[in-house]
Each structure stands twice: as structure tokens, then as C-alpha cells.
């Protein structure tokens, strides 16, 4: 599998990553044997970037992924995340440090490769939505302290929230990586926002991050599953998925995904999910793309898709 440079970290990561979140659900609700089989197969296929977070399954993802990686003695690149709630505003540094220690305990590790802020970034602070000023003035120094302590090699943030705040975080130079919402329903992180399209304009965030030599980790590559073209969900998967940056509701995203069906043949694709995955990896500023899995079949399909390579340029020009 193709490897790409994760920005200034210098790490070489697989273009397809393993998302151990709740949307796919295998690592929050799946059977232990299936979890181990999936990671073993991912590593065999060349996947070396694995993503989790304290939020996923209330810590279950970290515990299960840590157990499997230890059992397999896997040499991979591992990222996790911390999310601050309202009560943490009184001592952000302490909350960040506690979050790291709790994650390391669940993972069964002394350190991770990448530790990321998981909150949406906004101008006006409130609840789960974190003011960009707090992120820059308090969170970033706390993450840097953990780096100096040897608990993480690199630090990053999740690129959700308000576009202006996300651009400020990139411009700050304080973070090594950014998770970017980018998919065939909302390609604005990598190009112009399609005329009349619903959703948030991310203002070419991928290009801005690349110019800053930041690693980019694409999230919502399948728009929470909408780019499968169906509202049906696997039993392990999150059953109610709120869109991020795309249509006002999941049904709207599914309908827009189905409208891409006529492009499949020209792209040499056998499914909408293959089309969506090959769309994402076509952008040169993408370091790695996270896909969540419910089954081993989902994993095999994603591996096959990325190994076919990016969509052809003429097809890319017709999206949007």
C-alpha cells in the first residue's frame, strides 16, 4: 500500500488508515476475535496508521485496540485524542494531562505517536465547542508539555468547528497535524465549494495545512456512511450519524451520494464507497484517510479501493 509523508512529523503513513471509532463500531462493540483478525489483516495489507479516541465507546475503543496491538506485537503509528468538557475549563492543563494518562492506561502503553485535541473549534466558547483562543493559549502548551515528557511524539487537532477558527489553528504553527473533513459531498477542504451545495465551506483547509507542512488526516471520507448510498446500518455501527459539514441531515447526504452513481463506470468503480475513497486519496495534500469498519468485508473493500489508486482526473473534474 502507498505510504505518504505525515507532514513535518516525517512519519510515513499508509494512505488508508484504520479508524477505530464508533461510526463503524467494530472496536466499540465488536467481538474480540473479529477485532484481532481485522487489525492483523490491516497490517498485512500495509495499513500502519491507527486512530482512536477516549470518546469512542467511552474508552472501549482504546482498551480494545490496545489489547489487540499488544497481542499482535504490532509496530504501527498510533493516534488518540482528548476532548474537554465544560467543567475542564477551570484547569485545562490538568484535564489534558489527565486525559493523556487515562488514554495510556486504557491502551496499555507508555506513549503514543500522536495526541490530538478532539473538540470543535469556534470563536465563542461553550460546552463541547472550544474557543480557539483557549486552544491556542492553553491546550497547545499543555500538549507540548506532554510531548516534552515523552508521552507523545507529535500533537494535532481535529478540524471540526468554524472555518475561521480552524484556519487560525493551522496558521498558529503550534500543531503538527490536522484532521480534515473532506469527501465527495463536500470537497471544499481541497477545492472550490460546489455552487449550490449545502454545508460548510472549509476554505481549502488541506492546501493551507500542506503549505504549513502539517500532516493531514482525512475524516468523514464516507460522510459517516452516507456515501454508501443507503441509510441501512450494520448492527455494530452507530445507528444515528449526524452529518459534519455536509447536508442538514443524513437522508440528504444519502440522496446526494446516489446522484454520483452515473460517474461510477467512468471511474472504473464497482461501488459508491470505492468511488468515495478513491476521490479522497486523489488529493495530493492528503496524508492518510481514515475509514471506519463494522466488518472484515468493509476493510477488504477499502483496501481494494485504495490499491486501485485515485480516480481519473476527468472524473474528478465532474464532481460538484
Strand order of the largest sheet: 3-4-5-6-9-10-11-12
Radius of gyration: 18 Å
Specify the number of helices: 12
Number of domains: 1
Mean pLDDT: 96
Distance between the termini: 28 Å
**Which CATH-level-2 architecture?**
Alpha-Beta Barrel
Strand-residue fraction? 15-25%
What is the general shape? globular
Output the helix-strand order.
EEEHHEHEHEEEHEHEHEHHHEHH
**What is the CATH class name?**
Alpha Beta
Q: What is the CATH superfamily label?
A: NADP-dependent oxidoreductase domain
Helix content: 25-40%
CATH topology (fold) name:
TIM Barrel
User: How can the largest sheet be summarized?
Assistant: 8 strands, parallel, barrel
Number of strands: 12
Can you offer a commentary on this structure?
The chain is of the alpha/beta class. Helix content is 38%, strand content 16%. The strands form three sheets. An eight-stranded parallel beta barrel has the order 3-4-5-6-9-10-11-12, surrounded by six helices. Strand 9, helix 6 (163-171) and strand 10 (177-181) form a beta-alpha-beta unit. Helix 2 (32-45) crosses helix 3. The longest helix is centred in the middle third of the chain and has 17 residues, at 132-148. It is globular and about 50 Å long. It starts with a strand and ends with a helix.
Give the key terms.
two-stranded antiparallel sheet, 8-stranded parallel β-barrel, 12 helices, 16% strand, single chain, 320 residues, TIM Barrel, alpha/beta
Brief write-up:
This protein is an alpha/beta fold and about 325 residues long. The protein has a single domain (about 5-320), classed as NADP-dependent oxidoreductase domain (TIM Barrel).
Amino acid at each position: 500500500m502507498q505510504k505518504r509523508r505525515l507532514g513535518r512529523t516525517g512519519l510515513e503513513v499508509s494512505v488508508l488508515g484504520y479508524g477505530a471509532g464508533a461510526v463503524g463500531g467494530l472496536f466499540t462493540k465488536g467481538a474480540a476475535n473479529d477485532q484481532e483478525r481485522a487489525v492483523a489483516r490491516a497490517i498485512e495489507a500495509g495499513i500502519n496508521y491507527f486512530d482512536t479516541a477516549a470518546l469512542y465507546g467511552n474508552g472501549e475503543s482504546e482498551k480494545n485496540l490496545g489489547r489487540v496491538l499488544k497481542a499482535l506485537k504490532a509496530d504501527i503509528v498510533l493516534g488518540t485524542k482528548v476532548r474537554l468538557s465544560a467543567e475542564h475549563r477551570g484547569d485545562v492543563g490538568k484535564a489534558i494531562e489527565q486525559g493523556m494518562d487515562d488514554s495510556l492506561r486504557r491502551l496499555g502503553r507508555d506513549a503514543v505517536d500522536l495526541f490530538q485535541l478532539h473538540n470543535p473549534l469556534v470563536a465563542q466558547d461553550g460546552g463541547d465547542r472550544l474557543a480557539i483562543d483557549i486552544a491556542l493559549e492553553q491546550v497547545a502548551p499543555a500538549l507540548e508539555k506532554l510531548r516534552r515528557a515523552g508521552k507523545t511524539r507529535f500533537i494535532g487537532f481535529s478540524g471540526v468547528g468554524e472555518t475561521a477558527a480552524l484556519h487560525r489553528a493551522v496558521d498558529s504553527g503550534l500543531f503538527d497535524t490536522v484532521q480534515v473533513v473532506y469527501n465527495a459531498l463536500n470537497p471544499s477542504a481541497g477545492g472550490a465549494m460546489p455552487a449550490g451545495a449545502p454545508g460548510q465551506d472549509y476554505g481549502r483547509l488541506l492546501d493551507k495545512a500542506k503549505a504549513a507542512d502539517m500532516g493531514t488526516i482525512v475524516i468523514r471520507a464516507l460522510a459517516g456512511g452516507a456515501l454508501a448510498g443507503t441509510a441501512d446500518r450494520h448492527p455494530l455501527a452507530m445507528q444515528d450519524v449526524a452529518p459534519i459539514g455536509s447536508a442538514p441531515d443524513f437522508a440528504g447526504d444519502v440522496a446526494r451520494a446516489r446522484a454520483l452513481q452515473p460517474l461510477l463506470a467512468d471511474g472504473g468503480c464497482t461501488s459508491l464507497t470505492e468511488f468515495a475513497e478513491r476521490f479522497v486519496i486523489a488529493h495530493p495534500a492528503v496524508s492518510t484517510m481514515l475509514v471506519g469498519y463494522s466488518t472484515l468485508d468493509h476493510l477488504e473493500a477499502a483496501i481494494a479501493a485504495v490499491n486501485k489508486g485515485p480516480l481519473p482526473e476527468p472524473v474528478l473534474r465532474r464532481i460538484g
